[in-house]
Each structure stands twice: as structure tokens, then as C-alpha cells.
Amino acid sequence: MRVMIILLLVSRFAVAADPQIELSQAQIYNLGVKLGKLEVIRSVPLLDAPAIVSIPPENEYIVSTTQAGLINEIKASIGDQVQKGQVLATINSPELLTLQLHHLKSVNDLKLARADYARDKKLYKEGVIADRRWLQTKANYHVFVSHLNETRQLLQISGVTEADIKALEKNQQLSSQLKIFAPISGVVLERLVTIGEKAEALAPLFRVANFDKLWLDISIPQQRIEFVQLGDKVQVSNSDVTARIFLLGQHVDPANQTVLVRAEVKTAKDSIRPGQTVAVKIIQNKATLMFQVPNSALAKYAGDTYLFLRTATGFTAKPVQIVGRKKQQTIIAGDLQENDEIAIRGAVALKANFLGLGGDE
Q1: 69 with 152, same domain?
Q2: What are 211-226's pLDDT values in tens digits?
Q3: Bridge partner list, 292
């Protein structure tokens, strides 16, 4: 007779949409059932992956000089915080003297050409000189203007400041000392020269980077890349660092069969450093309402997962969909409400003792 009752209960559970379990408060207590509330969540942990902290290319600079010379002073070293325009080193460059001489010659040539231009312009208006002479004088003047602009630009390219160029034009005093300036405010990542060393033209001297913007270069197994989406949140393990994915790579690394996913760090940038390897978790927002429940709140039967909702007379067994898992928690979705009271412990007892569903946990 008891076997028949169990079979009837099993059959009832299989055909009923939401099986009802009638229990008194005393029975609930005796079964060790503990009640709790559904916890609403808006995002789901998708996967864990390794990542490397990197610097965007526009925030990293190689400092060099266009003029060869001897390094005679270094004012910054690895790890130093520097400001834009700060002197990093000075170079004794004989080639700089040649550029300055050419520039001063252009300055003097232009002075003479300007005087000829002013004189012939007046004579031309008075009809004293012919058109050909006026055109020749005007052409010569523009040529010397171009020469002056060219030599000034060459000095600027070499690293000479506008103030130093004006001082040179005013005082006409040459100097072989070339200052190397920081192009941005940031941190010196590398110093590639020493005092007394000869620096060749365009040879790298320093590497400077700004940490205002950082990226996470994440390696995702190629078989999982289809689940990752632009805009997904990235959480660095054991920290407050978060980021947002803005790039999904199109190339698979043949060495490890991973795809590059890049995220821009949004919070707590000071907690990580470029070059650091970190573990990250990709978290995906879902449009559907989801809930987080303890693993002990769920029971399985015939391949389905059920949650037990508290009612006035006992419990209702609600089928739910598993969306994701954590260590001791499961993320679910289903026909549930935020304020529903559930059995967070004792689900197995409810199933086994009242519905005859034990045996497949």
C-alpha cells in the first residue's frame, strides 16, 4: 500500500505544473527546513581567465634625439614620476652648433633681404626701378623667409625650445648643450643610456608612459569566445579593479589556442601595474530577472531543477533554470518574484520525504 502511495505521489509530481506540499510549522521544523529570501542579481559570472595589464600605445613614448652627441647629464631614472617638459638628460652635440650657425646665417640674410625689400618697394612705387628688379627683390625676400623657417624648424625638431631659439637670435651665442625633455607627464619605465655614452641620432634614450588609462589583455580559450560580448564587465580577482570589454580579437594564437579580448580599466587603476599578470572573471549582464540561491536550496528530479517556495499551507515546487554557478551559490531564473520566501536548506528532505523524489541527488 505504501509503495502505491509513493508511486501516486511521483506521478502527481510529474504531471503537475507546480506541485503543492502541505506541511505544518511543526513538520517544517522537524525536517530541518530553513527559510530565506530570494536574492536578486543583475549579472552572471561567465568565465575565469588570465590577463596582462598593458598601456595604450598613445600613452607610451620612446624619447630620443635627432642629433648625435655625448650624454653628459641624466636627471631621471627608472620609476621616477616626471612632468611634461621636464629635462630628462642633456647631450653635448657638435651637430647642434652647425644647425645654430645655419640658423643665424638665415637670420642675417633675412635682415638684408628685408632691407632690400623695403627699399625697392618704395622705389618701385615711385617708378624709379623696373618691374623685373622689383620682382627679383620680392622673390629673394620670400626665399630667405623660407630659409629662416626651415632652420628654425630643424632646431625645434632637434629639441631646442622656442625660448632658446629666440635667445639665440637675440644674443647670437652658440651652445652645444641639447636638453632632452619629457614629452608627457608620467613614469619613466626604461632608461637606455648612461653618462658618458655616445647617443646616436634617433637612438632611444628613455621610455615614458602615462598610467591614466590602462588595459587588460585577456586570453580567452577560442571555444569560449562566442559567449563573450562587447560591454561585458571584467573583475580582477581579490581586488576592486573593474573593466569593460571593448575589443574582441579576430585572431587565434596558434601557441595556446586563445583569443585576445581587451578591456579598459574603469576603477581602482592604482591597484594594478603595467606588465602585471592577474586573474580576472568576466561577468555578463542579463536582461531577464535572475536570483542567487544557496546550492542547498535546489533539488533535482528527472533532469529538472526545483526550488521550494513557501506558501500558507507548506511549499510549492517551482522548476527553475540554472544560469550560472559560484562556489556555494547557484544563479537561477524562472517564474519567481523578488519577495518570494524559499527553503534555503532542507530541499532534499522536502523532496524525499513528501514527494518520493529521493535517490537521484
Answers
A1: yes
A2: 999 999 999 999 989 8
A3: 39, 331
Looking up cell 560580448 gives: 229
Cα 296 from Cα 294, distance rounded (Å): 5
Q: What is the CA radius of gyration of the chain?
A: 38
pTM of the model: 0.66
Answer whether residue 361 is part of any domain: no
Longest C-alpha distance within the chain, in Å? Answer: 136
pLDDT of residue 100: 95
- Buried b / exposed e over 81-117, threshold 16 CB at 10 Å, is ebeeebebbbbbbebbeebbeebbebbebbeebeebb
End of a domain among 184, 209, 234? Answer: 209
Domain range for residue 326?
A: 2-42+287-355
Distance between CA 338 and CA 42 in Å, rounded?
Answer: 12
* Cβ burial 47-77 (10 Å sphere, 16+ → b, else e): bebebebbbeeebbbebbbebbbebeebebe
